[in-house]
Specification:
Distance between the termini: 60 Å
Number of domains: 3
Largest sheet: 5 strands, antiparallel
């Protein structure tokens, strides 16, 4: 009997949709409506009941939404959901209906029925509770009005077919969400570094570039991306880069190579850019090993230091912050005075206050501290 029902195109289509939604969470919207339609119902709710009476509404049909002015009232009834309370006592992962949980006499006098469910035009329910992540209780509730009639054995079997797939899809979705969050955090961290980071393959094709890397590529003619590949000027320097990339790639594949690789990129009338190449080993997966790649780190020693961050960190005045940032870039006092259009004695006075506020005793100590205390200026 079950083998025949699982071929029902509505049920099999719903199960396929659940797994698609686990991979792409944008597809979760509308899942409740699809469940309701498959089970011949008018409404569905998917929610999590956690500790301290917290309720996380994952998805529901539009007709279960209430106006903002009634939200506190709705939240209170979600916390006091009689069906959830009785379902937990009845048994986890068991398909139940309202007839299993309450008598007609209870329906007649229950505020849950007379106030909350009457407002939503709900009378009959089929669903289940199941264990979810972090000790929460997952809730599937499918409903229809009194005139639609009670749920049948056939509909119970349909719900029983869907439930384990819904549980698995939710677990997969939560795992994918955690991975996605970690990935987003990693990318944001890269974008906030004062070092440009490029991920390239063995042919030098750029797979990913951080914000700082994009900025350095734009501001320095010695760096370029040509037909999607990282390139350096002059050609001899580019050939050296490719050699270092190939060496790092061999290390990523497991071969023994020299640890670390660095390259200095000369710039006319400016300090050189510093490049460091490091292997990125692939991670094993049952779905195929990722290809090995190489990380290219680019640092500009002349990049402006974030003055606002220095001021927040050490309590500098605006002028002290400008002088401190220049010191962090190893600018001489004479050049600072000339660049700011102030006297050398004034710069020395600012230096004295900077030493006091940073707890340093010499200019070189202060410069080292200031250069390493905050990132370079960015759009963040």
């Amino acid at each position: 009997m079950l083998s025949e029902e699982i071929l029902d195109p509505r049920v099999s289509g719903l199960i396929a949709h659940l797994y698609d939604a686990a991979v792409d969470d944008s597809l979760w919207a509308g899942t409740a409506t699809r469940i309701a339609e498959t089970l011949g119902s008018t409404s569905t709710v998917l929610k999590l009941h956690g500790d301290n009476a917290r309720v996380n509404l994952l998805e529901c049909t539009d007709n279960l939404m209430v106006p903002e002015r009634d939200q506190a009232w709705a939240d209170d009834w979600h916390r006091k959901d009689l069906w959830v309370e009785r379902s937990v006592a009845y048994g986890m992962q068991r398909i139940i209906t309202d007839e299993d949980l309450v008598t007609r006499e209870e329906q007649a006098r229950s505020g849950f029925y007379q106030e909350w469910l009457r407002h939503l035009d709900i009378h009959h329910m089929i669903g289940a509770v199941f264990p979810a992540a972090d000790g929460a209780i997952g809730v599937l509730g499918i409903h229809r009005p009194q005139g639609a009639g009670a749920y049948t054995r056939h509909e119970r079997r349909q719900a029983a077919l869907v439930l384990p797939h819904l549980e698995r899809a939710l677990r997969l979705g939560q795992r994918f969400a955690a991975v996605s969050h970690a990935h987003a955090a990693s990318l944001q961290a890269l974008d906030r570094l004062d070092t440009g980071v490029l991920m390239v393959d063995g042919a030098g094709r750029v797979i990913h570039a951080s914000d700082m890397a994009e900025r350095l590529l734009h501001e320095n003619s010695q760096l370029a991306v040509i037909h999607g590949r990282l390139a350096l000027r002059p050609p001899a320097l580019h050939d050296k880069l490719l050699g270092l990339v190939r060496g790092a790639l061999a290390t990523a594949r497991g071969s023994i190579a020299k640890p670390g690789a660095a390259l200095s990129i000369p710039r006319p009338h400016r300090m050189p850019l510093a490049l460091e190449i490091a292997p990125l080993r692939p991670s094993a997966s049952a779905f195929g090993e990722q290809r090995p790649c190489v990380l290219v780190f680019i640092r500009d020693p002349e990049a402006p230091i974030a003055v606002a961050r220095l001021r927040e960190l050490f309590g500098f005045t605006r002028t002290e912050g400008v002088v401190a940032a220049a010191l962090g870039r190893a600018t001489s006092l004479e050049d600072i005075a000339a660049g700011m259009g102030i006297g050398l004695a004034t710069v020395r006075s600012h230096l004295k206050r900077i030493l006091a506020k940073t707890g340093t005793h010499r200019q070189v100590e202060a410069a080292a501290l200031l250069a390493r205390s905050v990132s370079t200026a960015s759009n963040h």
